[in-house]
Every structure is written in structure tokens, then in C-alpha cells.
Design brief:
Blueprint (H helix, E strand, L loop, with lengths): L28 E3 L6 H8 L4 E14 L6 E16 L3 H10 L4 E7 L5 E7 L12 H29 L1
Antiparallel strand pairs: 1-3, 2-3, 4-5
Helix pairs in contact: 1-3
Length: 163
């Protein structure tokens, strides 16, 4: 069910669109869901980049139907996560290829006055009325999800070598 509450501040710049999301040359990535877990990052890019806790007002981390990972949507409250810095161009490509097409890469204002790029649900994407729980994800889904990420990365590398 789409979130229908009062929408708080909108993205500070237009989304880049799904076809060429990295054309914006992003600098720092705001992560709020599965990418905030070091094991997931390591499975995808073989390291945990520099990161620090940050928050964005006017957003919520919504549960997505039939998915273990969340979506960032405009909403009342504050979305908490981490700002990843120092990502290489190849790491950005891997993370962008990994992300679900339900997202657009969008520049987001952070509470500390900086900006980060974040994967935001496309307008009209179906989201749950309740927020996603990082604690529940860590307890129930993290080990299996890390295995899925590692398998995805192997397939990604094979496709890259073949093509």
C-alpha cells in the first residue's frame, strides 16, 4: 500500500532516472537499509568504506512488500543510516547494479547540513504502512541475505567477464 501521509521535504535535486543513475557523479552514499551492514558491503564490494552515522529529516525507511530490505520514501520523521564515502567508480557501479529498479538515485539533504545520494523509492512504488526494522533484519535475515549478496556478486563478475 503506498504511503499516503503528508509528504515532507522532497529531494533536493531531480532523480537521475533508472537508465543511467550514475551520470550524476555521486560523491557520498546515504545508506539506510541492508547496505548499512558491514557484512553486506563486504559481500558486494570486498570492503567496508569509510562511514559515519547520519540522518535525513522528512523521510522514512519503509518496509517493502515481500522484500527483506526497505525503501526510502518521503514521510514524517527522520531516516537514520550511514554516509559512505571514498567509494571508487567501480564500487559505485557494483552497488548501482545491485540496487533494485524500484529505486532512483536522489540527492538528499542531511541533518548536519551535508548531502548524500540515496536510493529512493520511485513515486508510486508500493510500500508498507510500517517502517522497516534494522534489528529484525539483522536477527532474521542478515546471514541468508549476505549469502544472496555474495552469490549475486559472483554472477555479476561472471557477466562482466563474459560481456
Amino acid at each position: 500500500m503506498p504511503h499516503t501521509g503528508t509528504h515532507s521535504p522532497q529531494p533536493t535535486s531531480p532523480t537521475s532516472g533508472p537508465k543511467d543513475r550514475l551520470s550524476v557523479d555521486p560523491e557520498a552514499l546515504f545508506v539506510y537499509g541492508s547496505l548499512q551492514f558491514p557484512d553486506v558491503l563486504f559481500a558486494l564490494i570486498d570492503r567496508v568504506p569509510d562511514h559515519e552515522p547520519v540522518a535525513a529529516e522528512g523521510w522514512r525507511v519503509a518496509a517493502l512488500p515481500e522484500r527483506v530490505y526497505p525503501g526510502l520514501v518521503p514521510g514524517d520523521g527522520i531516516a537514520r543510516g550511514f554516509l559512505l564515502t571514498g567509494l571508487s567508480a567501480e564500487e559505485w557501479r557494483v552497488l548501482d547494479a545491485f540496487e533494485d529498479p524500484v529505486y532512483d538515485l536522489t540527492r538528499i539533504a542531511l541533518l548536519d547540513g551535508r548531502h548524500g545520494w540515496g536510493y529512493v523509492c520511485n513515486p508510486g512504488a508500493e510500500v508498507e504502512a510500517h517502517d522497516w526494522s534494522a534489528e529484525d533484519f539483522q536477527t532474521r535475515d542478515l546471514p541468508t541475505y549476505v549469502e544472496r549478496c555474495a552469490a549475486w556478486r559472483r554472477r555479476y563478475e561472471q557477466r562482466k567477464q563474459a560481456g
